[in-house]
Design a protein that fits this description.
Blueprint (H helix, E strand, L loop, with lengths): L6 E7 L5 H12 L4 E4 L14 E7 L3 H11 L2 E6 L4 H5 L4 E3 L28
Helix pairs in contact: 1-2
Length: 125
Protein backbone atom coordinates (compact mmCIF):
# COMPACT_ATOMS: atom_id res chain seq x y z
CA UNK A 1 0.00 0.00 0.00
CA UNK A 2 1.28 3.46 -0.90
CA UNK A 3 2.00 5.87 1.92
CA UNK A 4 -0.76 8.54 1.68
CA UNK A 5 1.88 11.20 2.38
CA UNK A 6 4.18 10.07 -0.44
CA UNK A 7 5.00 12.90 -2.89
CA UNK A 8 3.56 12.83 -6.39
CA UNK A 9 3.79 14.97 -9.51
CA UNK A 10 1.60 15.25 -12.57
CA UNK A 11 2.79 16.81 -15.81
CA UNK A 12 -0.16 18.06 -17.83
CA UNK A 13 0.64 18.37 -21.54
CA UNK A 14 -1.11 20.59 -24.03
CA UNK A 15 -0.83 21.92 -27.56
CA UNK A 16 -1.90 25.43 -28.60
CA UNK A 17 -5.49 24.32 -29.27
CA UNK A 18 -5.69 22.63 -25.85
CA UNK A 19 -4.20 25.56 -23.94
CA UNK A 20 -7.58 26.97 -22.80
CA UNK A 21 -8.60 23.59 -21.35
CA UNK A 22 -5.18 23.22 -19.70
CA UNK A 23 -5.50 26.73 -18.26
CA UNK A 24 -8.94 25.99 -16.82
CA UNK A 25 -7.66 22.78 -15.21
CA UNK A 26 -4.65 24.64 -13.82
CA UNK A 27 -6.98 27.27 -12.33
CA UNK A 28 -9.10 24.51 -10.74
CA UNK A 29 -5.99 22.87 -9.27
CA UNK A 30 -4.96 26.25 -7.86
CA UNK A 31 -8.17 26.34 -5.81
CA UNK A 32 -7.83 22.76 -4.55
CA UNK A 33 -6.29 22.53 -1.06
CA UNK A 34 -5.03 19.01 -1.86
CA UNK A 35 -2.67 20.47 -4.48
CA UNK A 36 0.57 21.63 -2.91
CA UNK A 37 1.94 23.49 -5.93
CA UNK A 38 0.77 24.41 -9.40
CA UNK A 39 3.70 25.27 -11.63
CA UNK A 40 3.71 27.80 -14.44
CA UNK A 41 2.54 26.91 -17.91
CA UNK A 42 5.67 26.27 -19.94
CA UNK A 43 4.92 26.64 -23.64
CA UNK A 44 8.20 25.10 -24.82
CA UNK A 45 10.18 21.91 -24.21
CA UNK A 46 11.83 21.76 -20.79
CA UNK A 47 13.80 18.97 -19.11
CA UNK A 48 12.59 15.60 -20.35
CA UNK A 49 9.29 17.07 -21.59
CA UNK A 50 9.32 17.71 -25.36
CA UNK A 51 6.10 19.73 -25.52
CA UNK A 52 4.27 22.38 -23.53
CA UNK A 53 3.33 21.31 -20.01
CA UNK A 54 2.90 22.35 -16.41
CA UNK A 55 3.45 20.45 -13.22
CA UNK A 56 1.31 19.93 -10.14
CA UNK A 57 2.54 18.56 -6.81
CA UNK A 58 0.32 16.59 -4.45
CA UNK A 59 0.38 13.73 -1.97
CA UNK A 60 -0.52 10.15 -2.83
CA UNK A 61 -3.79 10.52 -0.91
CA UNK A 62 -4.98 12.95 -3.62
CA UNK A 63 -3.81 10.85 -6.58
CA UNK A 64 -7.20 9.36 -7.53
CA UNK A 65 -8.88 12.79 -7.50
CA UNK A 66 -6.06 14.38 -9.51
CA UNK A 67 -6.17 11.59 -12.10
CA UNK A 68 -9.97 11.88 -12.37
CA UNK A 69 -9.76 15.65 -12.87
CA UNK A 70 -7.18 15.26 -15.64
CA UNK A 71 -9.08 12.42 -17.33
CA UNK A 72 -12.25 14.55 -17.40
CA UNK A 73 -10.47 17.14 -19.58
CA UNK A 74 -9.16 14.75 -22.23
CA UNK A 75 -5.64 16.17 -21.82
CA UNK A 76 -2.54 13.98 -21.82
CA UNK A 77 -0.61 13.70 -18.58
CA UNK A 78 2.17 11.84 -16.85
CA UNK A 79 1.48 11.07 -13.19
CA UNK A 80 4.33 9.71 -11.13
CA UNK A 81 5.66 9.29 -7.61
CA UNK A 82 8.69 11.24 -6.52
CA UNK A 83 11.39 8.84 -5.35
CA UNK A 84 15.17 8.86 -5.42
CA UNK A 85 15.02 7.28 -8.91
CA UNK A 86 14.11 10.00 -11.41
CA UNK A 87 14.30 7.62 -14.39
CA UNK A 88 11.92 5.08 -12.82
CA UNK A 89 9.60 7.90 -11.72
CA UNK A 90 9.20 9.00 -15.34
CA UNK A 91 9.06 5.48 -16.84
CA UNK A 92 8.33 2.25 -14.96
CA UNK A 93 6.59 3.93 -11.99
CA UNK A 94 4.66 6.40 -14.15
CA UNK A 95 1.00 6.33 -15.14
CA UNK A 96 0.06 7.88 -18.47
CA UNK A 97 -3.29 9.47 -19.12
CA UNK A 98 -3.97 9.59 -22.85
CA UNK A 99 -1.33 9.05 -25.50
CA UNK A 100 2.17 8.99 -23.98
CA UNK A 101 4.72 11.61 -24.98
CA UNK A 102 8.24 10.41 -25.78
CA UNK A 103 10.40 11.89 -23.03
CA UNK A 104 14.09 12.76 -23.28
CA UNK A 105 15.20 10.49 -20.44
CA UNK A 106 18.88 11.40 -21.02
CA UNK A 107 18.39 14.60 -18.98
CA UNK A 108 16.94 12.92 -15.88
CA UNK A 109 18.85 12.91 -12.62
CA UNK A 110 21.05 9.93 -11.74
CA UNK A 111 19.82 7.38 -9.22
CA UNK A 112 19.87 8.83 -5.71
CA UNK A 113 20.10 12.46 -6.87
CA UNK A 114 16.50 13.34 -7.82
CA UNK A 115 16.40 17.15 -7.69
CA UNK A 116 12.60 17.03 -7.59
CA UNK A 117 12.61 15.75 -4.01
CA UNK A 118 14.06 18.88 -2.37
CA UNK A 119 11.83 21.18 -4.40
CA UNK A 120 8.62 19.19 -3.89
CA UNK A 121 5.82 21.61 -3.12
CA UNK A 122 8.13 24.62 -3.56
CA UNK A 123 7.86 26.97 -6.52
CA UNK A 124 11.38 27.35 -7.87
CA UNK A 125 10.79 26.95 -11.58
Amino acid sequence: MTNPDAPYHAHIYYDPAERPVATALRDDFGRDPAILLVGPMIDAPVGPHPIAQYEVHFLAAARAAVVAAIEATGLRALVHPLTDDDLADHTSLAHWIGTPVELDVTVLDPLGANQGIPRFGVSDF
